[in-house]
Design a protein that fits this description.
The protein is of the alpha/beta class. The protein has 3 domains: about 15-80, Orthogonal Bundle (Arc Repressor Mutant, subunit A); about 85-180 and about 320-345, Response regulator (Rossmann fold, 3-Layer(aba) Sandwich); about 185-315 and about 350-355, Response regulator (Rossmann fold, 3-Layer(aba) Sandwich), CATH 3.40.50.2300. The chain contains 11 helices and 14 strands. The chain is elongated, with a radius of gyration of 25 Å. About 45% of the residues are buried.
Length: about 350
C-alpha cells in the first residue's frame, strides 16, 4: 500500500484514491483535457485492485471531474464544459427567518445571471449535510453556499479533501477548507445592544446565550461582556444563562435566569425569538417592560416591530449577506478572482432602538 492511501483509514480505498486524484486535478498536476492514466497504471501506482480503481473512476465520472470518451479513454474534465447553471445553498432551516432571508438574497443575485438556486435544510445534522453535499456534486452544481448551524461546518474536513467547486461559508469558517467566509460583526452588535441598555439606566444586565458551541453565540457573549466591562459593571454569578434559538428557549431561559439572579433588571438575548420568549415570561412574572425590566434582542426579525413593546434589536441585513455571498460565488465560477485568494468578510450591523430597551423607563 502506498503512502497516499491507508488501510487503517475508515474511508474506503476507492474514495481515498479519488481524494488524491481530485487534489492533483485541482493543482493541475493532471490538467483539464489530458488523458487519465490507464486502470492498470493506477492500480500499480496505488497498489490496489482493478475493482477499486474502477470504483474510484466511476465516482469521479459521476461528479463530472472525469469524462469517458467511447473508444478513446477517460479524460480530465474542463470546468467550463461541466457548466450546469446550478448553484446550491445548504442552510440549517429554510423555515427560519434568517436563513430564508439569506436564500432570498442569493436567488435575487443569481437569477439575473441565469443561475438556478437549489436550497435545502441540513437541520444541524452532519449526516444530512453530507448527503446534501453528495447530492449537489452528483447534480453537477457549479458552486456551493453553506450557512452553518450550531457548530462549525460539520463536513469541513470532507469538503477540504473532496470538493471540486467554488465554496462560500456564511457564519463560520473551517481552517482546512478553501472558501470565502462571510459573517456579521456580532461582537460589535452585542456590544451596541448591551451598551444601549446601560445608557438607558439598567445596571444588572444578564444574557440569554445561544446554542452551546455556536460560533456566533460565542461572539455575542464576548460583546455583552465587553460592554459591561467598559461600563465598570462586574458580571455576577448567574447573569449568563443558556437559552437556545427559539421563543420557547427564551421563555424557559428567562424564567431560569431570574430564579438564579433575581436582582437582574435587563437582559440581552441571543436573537429576537429568544427575546420574544423572554417578553412572554416577564409578562407572566408581572414585570413591566421597559419600566421594570429592559430587553434587547438580535437580528431584526420581521416580528420585532410588532411585539409589545417593540424590540430593541440589531439589524444584520441577512438578505444583503446572501446577495454578497452570491456575488462572490458567481465571480469565482466565472474565474474573475484569483483561485487562492480567499476572503473572510466581516459585515457591519446596525442598532434598532425599540421601547423594550429603555424608552419610557422611569
Amino acid at each position: 500500500m502506498t503512502e497516499e492511501i491507508h488501510l487503517e483509514s475508515p474511508l474506503p480505498l476507492y474514495r481515498q484514491m479519488a481524494d488524491v486524484l481530485r487534489r492533483e486535478i485541482e493543482a493541475q498536476a493532471l490538467a483539464p483535457g489530458t488523458r487519465l492514466p490507464t486502470e492498470k497504471d493506477l492500480a500499480r501506482r496505488f497498489q490496489v485492485s482493478l475493482i477499486t480503481v474502477r470504483a474510484c473512476v466511476t465516482e469521479l465520472v459521476r461528479e463530472g471531474i472525469l469524462l469517458r470518451r467511447q473508444g478513446r479513454g477517460t479524460f480530465i474534465a474542463s470546468r467550463k464544459a461541466r457548466a450546469t447553471q446550478l448553484i446550491t445553498a445548504i442552510v440549517p432551516d429554510l423555515t427560519d427567518y434568517f436563513s430564508a432571508e439569506i436564500v432570498t438574497g442569493i436567488q435575487s443575485a443569481a437569477l439575473p445571471f441565469g443561475y438556478e438556486l437549489v436550497a435545502a435544510s441540513s437541520h444541524d445534522h452532519a449526516q444530512t449535510e453530507r448527503m446534501l453535499l453528495d447530492r449537489a456534486v452528483s447534480r453537477g452544481v457549479e458552486g456551493l453556499i453553506i450557512v452553518t448551524g450550531r457548530g462549525s461546518f460539520a463536513n469541513g474536513a470532507l469538503v477540504g479533501n473532496r470538493l471540486f467547486m467554488p465554496l462560500i461559508l456564511i457564519d463560520s469558517y473551517h481552517p482546512n477548507v478553501e472558501a470565502d467566509c462571510f459573517h456579521t460583526n456580532d461582537v460589535i452588535g452585542a456590544y451596541d445592544a448591551t451598551r444601549h441598555l446601560i445608557e438607558s439606566g439598567y445596571q444588572r444586565i444578564g444574557h440569554l446565550a445561544g446554542p452551546k458551541g455556536h460560533f456566533l453565540a460565542e461572539l455575542r457573549v464576548n460583546g455583552w461582556r465587553r460592554a459591561l466591562r467598559e461600563a465598570g459593571i462586574t458580571v455576577e454569578n448567574g447573569w449568563l444563562g443558556e437559552a437556545g434559538a427559539t421563543a420557547a428557549d427564551g421563555h424557559r431561559g428567562l424564567m431560569a435566569l431570574v430564579r438564579q439572579a433575581p436582582a437582574l433588571d435587563a437582559v440581552f438575548a441571543y436573537n429576537d425569538l429568544v427575546a420574544i420568549g423572554a417578553l412572554r415570561a416577564l409578562a407572566e412574572l408581572g414585570r413591566r417592560v421597559p419600566e421594570q425590566f429592559g430587553v434587547a434582542g438580535y437580528g431584526n426579525h420581521a416580528l420585532a416591530a410588532f411585539v409589545h413593546p417593540p424590540l430593541t434589536t440589531i439589524d444584520t441585513a441577512p438578505r444583503q449577506v446572501g446577495i454578497k455571498a452570491a456575488q462572490r460565488l458567481l465571480a469565482r465560477i466565472r474565474e474573475e478572482v484569483p483561485a487562492g485568494d480567499h476572503h473572510k468578510d466581516v459585515l457591519p450591523v446596525r442598532l434598532i432602538t425599540g421601547d423594550s430597551g429603555g424608552h419610557g423607563k422611569g
